[in-house]
Amino acid sequence: MSNNYHRLLKRQLRKIDLDGDTLDLIAPFLHQVDEAYKAFDSDLQQVENVLEKSSQELFQANQQLKNSVESITGQLSKVAGNIKDVIFEMDLNGNWSYLNPAWRKLTGYKVNDCLGKPYYQFLKDDQGNAFKSLIDLKKPNFKTISKSFRSQIITGEYKWLDFSIKVIMTEEGHIEGYIGTIVDITKIKETELALINAKEKESMANKAKDEFLTTMSHEIRTPLNAVIGISHLLLLENPKTEQLENLSTLKHSSEHLLCLVNDILDFNKIASGQLELEERDFSLNQVLNGLRSIFHNTAKEKDIRLLIKKDTSLPKTFIGDSTRLSQILTNLVSNAIKFTEEGKVMVDIEVLKVEADFYVLEFVISDTGIGIPEDKKDKIFLSFAQANSDTTRKYGGTGLGLAICKRLLEIMDSDLELESEVGKGSTFSFKLKLQKSGMTDYQEDNNAFDARSIHDQDNLKGARILVAEDNKVNIMVIEKFLSKWQVDFDIAENGLIALNKALENTYDMILMDLQMPVMNGFEASKAIRESNNPLNKVMPIYALSASTGMDIKDQLGEYGIDGLICKPFNPTELFKTLTSILQQKYIQ
């Protein structure tokens, strides 16, 4: 037996104990088996080497992974420890299973003392009771919820918390726990509450301001109504020549005071965003004629020319807010005349563009007055501002006129432009897009009134009007005008008398003061509307009032009042208004 055979082959040959001849005979076969054993050992050694190497690599990889996990876990712990908001995990029973360090900073409770215990033991309501109703874990029909509440912490003080919780689901769709955050929103909530409180205070202040303006408006307008009305009446009663100048001055001064009151009230409406524009047919000719009649004598007294020039292609009527347009033009022309000592003031209206249903008009008001310095041009559009400090002393005025004009034009989607040179005059201009009117020229002419002969017209002759008014001077004034217009009228000194008269008689119209003793105008109007007489349900009822508060117009409809006629009234305008109301009544 060869000594070079593999050890396993030698062991097998010794066991079978073959003789020499036999061994020699099978020697070639034994050599092949020996080679096979040696090849197997070689392959086994190689496999062992590979396995050993792989085992080492696997160990190293596992160690690296372990180090990475420890590193990431440490980083996450640092992150969680430095997050100001509370991060939590909760089991199915609502017990804390994880809380980051922010929990102790927020509530004062140690994290380890809270883990494994119900959340509501540590979240208290305003009375210090456990917040068990915060979430319903018996019927968790939510995926994510968020609630804000005020909670008592360990020190006894209160904090506003924003509590958000999300359901953790298994792959099979079962709930295995909850995760969420708790954020301290105390400062945000305090700011929010402070803003709400400030808003309420602002609202109360605005209400007080509006009530003050309403009261002051009523108190100022009531005597003004008497002054203006009586001045009109005296001028109609053929005064002596030496009295005419005094009466004209009285009328002019009272109307000027009314303009100042109106400016302040209008500015308040614009500033609060409660000014609404009207959209109705109006005659541009009447607006311009009114402008001419207002300022003709004023310009003549200063020996300056007032010229009104209009494009020949202008139609007579448009749809828009003629009252606000007239207010803008009146303010601009008044300023132009006020600051012009010689020369002229011109109002020029031109058609810039004609569209299917609209005209684009340009209004230009120019003067040869004192002009405005370049560095003062922006200032004059500010509220209560004048170009120079001595302007008010020399020329008067509140400084509201141009501010109101600019704001009104902005509401009308326009802008007030200015060109001026000191000593040479100023030019104010604006563009307006006005809708064409369907009113015929005949209707426009028919609605025109001649103020000088208005008291000779019989438009209101025989009309039955009930006037509810408690101020004796105002009663005297309106009685005289209604008598001149041949109106059949009754006077009621309070709302209750007005109600009884409306129940006993039939009227074409009621003029109702709003602030009266016993029963005010609102209550009286509502009672008249609710009476059994069917005529009282459709009869025009108009408030004739010196009150012009921000909410007056909104209240009118609630009490069945059709509109508002403001005191002091211009007799000509009152005549027009009453005529228009009665004409609409009979047309309907």
TrEMBL record:
Annotated ranges, domain Response regulatory: 464-582
Keyword Lipid biosynthesis: no
Catalytic reactions on record: ATP + protein L-histidine = ADP + protein N-phospho-L-histidine
Coiled coil: 37-64
Gene3D superfamilies: 1.10.287.130, 3.40.50.2300, Histidine kinase-like ATPase, C-terminal domain (3.30.565.10), PAS domain (3.30.450.20)
Keywords, in A-Z order: Coiled coil, Phosphoprotein, Two-component regulatory system
Residues found modified as 4-aspartylphosphate: 513
InterPro entries: CheY-like_superfamily, HATPase_C_sf, HATPase_dom, His_kinase_dom, HisK_dim/P_dom, HisK_dim/P_sf, PAS, PAS-assoc_C
UniProt-recorded name of the protein: histidine kinase
Organism: Arenibacter troitsensis
